[in-house]
Amino acid sequence: MPESAPQSAALEDIMVAMDVVDTLRHQEKLVARELDGEGRRERLLTRLRNMYAAQGIEVPDHVLEQGIAALEEERFQYKAVASSWRTRIAKIWVSRARWAKPVGFLSVLASALYAVYFTVDVLPQRQLLSSLPTQVRTSLSQIKAVAKKPEIVVEAERIAANAQAALAAGNLEVAESVLGNLTALNRQLNQSFTVRIVARPNKQSGVWRRPPGNPNGRNYYLIVEAVDAKNQPVELAIMNEENNKATKVTSWGLRVDEKTFNRVAADKKDDGIIQNNIVGHKPVGVLQMEYVVATSGATITEW
């Protein structure tokens, strides 16, 4: 055990040197004054020696020298670790108790919002994307099954091709709109109704109008309506030739020649009843009404 005493003495010297450094740090003005310039180091040693002596502590000069040197070299002084990505991560982890709850709440809120977005927007779009091709094929097949004219099938195939092209491009909005046109065509083809002259009390059965730009001319119209097999009115989109606007109506004016107009007027005047009140039909498989009276097919919706 011959080396234990020197090791103990060295350790004590280090501890005392650290105490000296600590003392010097608490005496900043003294250190600044005594170390500022040459020849004053000895005075600082004397002051330190006297300070420890006043406390009843005997400190060798070489230990005081070590303390002064350590202060000058900034030994025994804590230095903050330089900032880096590792220290930033460590600080975030240490402070997790402060931010964990709000971040957790935001995470839950974000998940809830995404769930709503997925349910309201993403999922319906996926379902629409998968169902639209089937709907297009079904509508086209139904049209082909009832169409009585080849040009109707050609038009339906053109619309279906446009829908398929929009789907291939991922444009669901356009595809859905085009499918709507195909569905409307299918619905119109499957409609069946009779067109008859309105002959109810206090209702006009015919009118004449001055054509725009021809104050001396007259256009004659029979007021007609569409009814289905159950005698229920059918609402149709009718184009008004006077303003070129289409309006959904259950009765409208059908333009006829003067002879037909006068014949219907005489029929109604005779007994208040129009005997031959049927002017046309719209059978399944065609798009246009088929008339049994002389007419240009022009119509009005206001009179």
Model description:
By secondary structure, the chain is of the alpha+beta class. The protein has helices at 4-26, 28-34, 41-54, 61-73, 85-94, 96-146, 150-168, 172-189, 258-271, and strands spanning 193-197, 206-209, 219-227, 236-240, 245-249, 251-256, 278-282, 290-291, 295-300. The strands form 2 sheets. Strands 1, 2, 3, 6, 7, 8 and 9 form a 7-stranded antiparallel sheet that branches. It has a two-stranded antiparallel sheet with strand order 4-5.
In short, what is this structure?
By secondary structure, the protein is an alpha+beta fold. The protein contains nine helices and nine strands. A hairpin with a 7-residue loop joins strand 7 (278-282) and strand 8 (290-291).
Strand content: 15-25%
Number of helices: 9
C-alpha termini separation: 129 Å
Low-pLDDT runs: 1-9
Q: How many distinct beta strands? A: 9
The coarse overall form would be rod-shaped
Domain tally: 3
Helix content percent band: 55-70%
Largest sheet: 7 strands, antiparallel
| Radius of gyration over all CA atoms, rounded | 51 Å
Mean pLDDT: 80
> Structural class per helix/strand content?
alpha+beta
Helix/strand order, N-terminal first? HHHHHHHHEEEEEEHEEE
Pfam families: DUF6384 (PF19911)
InterPro entries: DUF6384 (IPR045964)
